[in-house]
Structure of TetR/AcrR family transcriptional regulator:
Amino acid sequence: MAVLAEQESGSAARILGAARELVLKRGVKGLTVAEIADRAHVAKGTIYLHWSTREDLLVGLFGRDFLASHDEFAELLTADPDAARPSRLLPLLLQSTVDHPFISALQSEDEDLLGVLTQHPRSAKLLENLGPAALLRVALPVWRRHNLARTDWEFDEQAYALQALLLGFLATAVERRALAIIAVDEPARVIAAAVTALLGPEDPGPGDIRATADAALADLATRRAALLESIGN
Amino acid sequence: MAVLAEQESGSAARILGAARELVLKRGVKGLTVAEIADRAHVAKGTIYLHWSTREDLLVGLFGRDFLASHDEFAELLTADPDAARPSRLLPLLLQSTVDHPFISALQSEDEDLLGVLTQHPRSAKLLENLGPAALLRVALPVWRRHNLARTDWEFDEQAYALQALLLGFLATAVERRALAIIAVDEPARVIAAAVTALLGPEDPGPGDIRATADAALADLATRRAALLESIGN
DNA sequence: CACTGAACCAAATGACGAATTTGGTCAGTG
DNA sequence: CACTGACCAAATTCGTCATTTGGTTCAGTG
């Protein structure tokens, strides 16, 4: 099983922390390995004991945001299966994206922060497999199966609409560009209402919520494993 | 009253046509005034009889897309006031955006097509005042007033949700980036259903539809005048 | 008077060698 | 054996200057 570098080495953790701070402050472009090493109080060579290239380190950094997000969802769903409801999960998903700067940066293709890695295949793969849209694609069938979404709407069309809604909320919440003039205090409440409007009233039978949460947890575990595989050492 | 250059001069019309073809084919970047003049079979100097700078010509080109879109809506709403319903107007708005390449390009900030004009203040102003989001902002209050949208939802929140929905659909329909995996045959039907889900069933009384269409037409006329002012000669 | 196209010139581009930077390596150290 | 930092090849940046490009002008033409 893959294991994260920072779990077995304090210096790896410091390197990640330093890299994170520096990328968030000044972006990937122009950020040098020497700087990261300096701030982490290690020599350059040490970085290459844990990652084999600079790109590996940076992509690993992004991956850790997805990892953190997944783990938070796993924890939440374990403690509170009710959070698997669409009207709760989608606002949480939106919030989680906003809260994890690298997820939002990838979602909005933030050139300033990600530099050349914006369109990079490995970044794209992260977003495609683990981003909010991906989560949504696996969640909708489960919701339909457990009376948490209306089924009198063709699946593809419903998925398309839900995806557009989520992308729209993400764009207005995350993107810098000011296409969105209207602002609102609690986007989370608004998206919850919008999701309920789209998917219809939630009418779970006994066990439906639990089953949904379990399906979500199982999926999260699968994704987590694949993610670890791709960023672990 | 401002009047369009092409209405009083054949050469102006040819210049616009040539510029449009060339921009659509190869983008603004690298496109020279000499090329436009060549294709329009006029000398370079002639262009400056109608527009005072190259930028003026290009922005005028974009503006004409908005003009065309507005005129199509005006015509449609005059012939068929029922098209002012949210469930009809929003799909039309989406379709109109897709159909007018410069509107979509501005909406999606298409760097390849618009080059340096993507973020240009004058382009931004066009989109902000005349783009789909702008239309939506003025339409929603009218719909609420005439029983075409539920009013048991706070205005700002409803507007925010509707805007996000529209932006999401625009993004999936117009943008190149492949965040949207799910595709669908008739986006127009899907957005109609989504809009109805968000705004509730339409329940117009006698005269409500007509009044809505009239308000829309009045607004279109105002915007058209302002637009002419900014791109006319 | 609508239109032309040669002429103008500010700005962009390209060339190119020198100087500097930087990702990655590895022999050595404590 | 985790870590260091001098070292190197490759890439990037910089400075400078010649050349070209391309938007704009305007005296002239038919």
Q: What stands out?
A: The longest helix of chain B spans residues 54-79. Chain B touches chain A at residues 107, 109, 127-128, 131, 133, 137, 153, 156-157, 159-161, 163-169, 171-172, 177, 179-184, 187, 189-191, 193-194, 197-198 (CB under 8 Å). Residues 9, 11, 42-46, 49 of chain B lie near DNA strand C (CB under 10 Å from a C1').
